Amino acid sequence: MIRTQIQLPDPLYREVRRIAQAQDWSIAEVIRRGAEAVVRSYPPDKKQTRQTWQLPEPLKAQLLVADAARLRDLARADAEQAVP
Question: Does some domain include residue 57?
Answer without folding.
Answer: no
